[in-house]
Structures are given as structure tokens and as C-alpha cells.
Amino acid sequence: MSIFFSTPVDIDIVLDDPDDRTMVDVKLDKNRREKAPLYMDGESVKGAVTVRPKDGKRLEHTGIKVQFIGTIGTQLDYYDQNPGRSSSSSSSSSPSSLAGLLWTAPAIRLGLQRRRLLTDGLVEMFFDRGNHYEFLSLNQELAAPGELQHPQTFDFNFKNVEKQYESYNGINVKLRYFVRVTVSRRMADVIREKDIWVYSYRIPPEMNSSIKMDVGIEDCLHIEFEYSKSKYHLKDVIVGRIYFLLVRLKIKHMELSIIRRETTGAAPNQYNESETLVRFEIMDGSPSRGETIPIRLFLGGFDLTPTFRDVNKKFSTRYYLSLVLIDEGRSIQNSLTPLIPIYIILTFPLSAIQTPDDTLNSRKSSSTAKPPTPLPP
Question: What is the CATH number for 183?
């Protein structure tokens, strides 16, 4: 069967200065990771493409082109790997209709696998099958129609490319930038792709208000919790305290959780997927009245992304803090405290600001890279 899918040509894509550029460790799924070169908004993307006919055979083509593309789609085999996973919806669809939508995924698997051969893993959002979204597409012609019998190398340069969104691999959504080379043929095109990773730095906010709230159960429990701020960078520390004003429950322990909620689609067809990234025990044993429990949670050890708000009107990713109390009866008192939204940003590390000749220059391979943008209110 492999002979039906073999290609008559090899295509190699090499980006300029790969050894001098920072590489980002990208999580593909629970068991797979890969390295991708890091670029910034405004940087040029340049390199070389080598087209090599196999076995020295003559290759007829109708043109060779290179594209730089930015897309938003979902990971193809999400429902194959997670058949029991459910989505919460804010649309008017009934639960049965949503279940029907999920169970139709295996029925269209063959068609999606066919699409995988063409797009290398890009596929439409599950609630809008038949479309994926290209928000960026630049093209350069490398060769006019003709023949190739020997390896040939073509240079390309996409100058000062605006990369308005940050790369993202989520539960359902994947925002991707890549270089695509297409050798057009009468029978079937030959396509190769190479991904890059994009960071979008933000300026730390001047105003960063604290979070303070009183919650409890009447005549049973009254607590006051406070977090020192509401906006954090990826390597920040969550600092706060829990103060017990009234305790008439036998509390066994207390946990602080970080929850990531991914929203896809637009109203009225929005679907939410939430995952708990970490459960951190901040208290073990029953507290007494007037006791204060300190909170100190380091974010650098967790797989976080920045907060995304309505990216290209396709998806959002938000983070929440959840305080959970468990009493001796194992009843979880998480309805007492609402989910507290926090805003996570990507900022230049302090060392990069202090030593620009070292760290900062390693992240900038082009003087045209744009400076970090202010944090939205």
C-alpha cells in the first residue's frame, strides 16, 4: 500500500540561523513534545527550500511555491483519543443534539483522515466542520512550470511579517504558524510544512488590583480570602491568605486549584472545555477561629499559557483560581467560593531586560521585531 502514497520528490525546508535562535519546547499531547524555533511579531521569516527528485528521475511540475500561513483549527484526532470527553455549551442546542454531534465523529473519521494527508493535522473546529480559518497567508513563487532532474535550492524571505496572535495548542483549538512548500503536479500536489512558534510579549500593567472576598455558610463557616494581585506573568508567584472568622465545621484540608477554561466559537454557539491544571494543598487539619493560612504558589512549574481573549473571534482561554474545602464527611465545599478570574501575560524576563546583549538579542534575529504591546484593560 505504501507505493500508492509515496511521493516522487523530497522537499527540505531550512530556516535561517536555526542554531542561534531560541527553541521552544511545544507540548503536542500528554506523551509527545517537539522543538520549534521562536519568532516574534514583526520578524522576517526566511530560509531555503531544496527540492530533490527521487532516484534521479525527471520530475514534471506545474509550479513550485512557498507560503507563510497562520491558521486556527482543532487537533484532528481529539475525539478519537477522548471519546468520552464532553463539552459544555452555551448554545440553545439540547444535550441530546450535542451528544449526537459527538457520536458522529467516528462516522466522519475516514474523511478527516483523508484531509490529514493534505493538511498535516489541521482540521476545522468540531462545531463548524468543513472550514478551518486562515488569518494570514503570504505567497512567493519559487519556480515556473517546468522539469526537475537534479536537486535545486530556492531561497525565500517573508519580510517583517505581522504575527498578531501568539501560537497556542489547547484542548480543542490549535493556533499555528508554518511555512508550506507546494510542488504542483497534474496528478497530485506534493506538500511539506515546517512549524514555527510565536510569542507575543506584553508590558506589565501599571495597575494591578488585589482580590478580596468574604464567603461562608450561615452560622457554620465564615472565611475571608485575599490575593495580592489579579494579573500575573508566567513565572510569577500567587501570594495571598485565608482568614477564618468562624469555624463550626470539621474541615479536613483545603486546596487551591488553577483551572483553565477554553471557549470556542461565537454566541450563540459557544462550547467550553475546562481542565484543572494543579491542585495545591494549602492546609491540612481543622483550623480554629482567627487562624490565618498563607498562600504561596509558584506558577513557573506548571504548563500555562497567557490569557487569550476572543482571538480572531474564534476562541478564548481564561484562567481561574478555585478554593476547595473538604470536611471530615468528604463533602467538597467548593460552592462557597466562586471561580476567581486571573489574567496571565507573557513578559520579558528580568534578566533579559538587564542584559540585552545576551538573552534579549538571542530572541531577536531581526531588528524589525516589534516591541511588546501594552496589556489590554
Answer: 2.60.40.640
Domain boundary among 177, 201, 225: 201
- Cell representation of residue 82: 477522548
Name every residue whose Cβ is closer than 8 Å to that of residue 103 and which is 6 or more positions away in sequence.
Answer: none
Q: CB–CB of 91/270 below 8 Å?
A: yes
Residues 219, 193 within the same domain: no
pTM, whole model, 2 decimals?
A: 0.74
How do strand 340-345 and strand 231-233 relate by DSSP bridges?
parallel
In which domain, by residue range, is 323 found?
205-346
Contact predicate 233/345, CB 8 Å: yes
**pLDDT string in tens for the chain (377-residue length):** 444 557 788 999 999 877 778 998 888 777 888 889 999 999 999 999 999 998 878 888 999 999 999 999 864 334 434 443 434 444 333 333 333 333 333 333 333 333 333 333 333 344 444 357 899 999 999 999 999 888 999 999 999 999 999 999 988 899 999 999 999 998 889 999 999 999 988 888 888 999 999 888 888 889 999 999 999 999 999 999 999 999 888 888 888 999 999 998 877 778 899 999 999 899 988 888 899 999 999 999 888 999 999 998 889 999 999 988 888 766 666 556 778 888 888 875 433 333 333 333 333 333 345 555 554 44
Same domain for 168 and 19, yes or no, is yes
d(CA 303, CA 293): 26
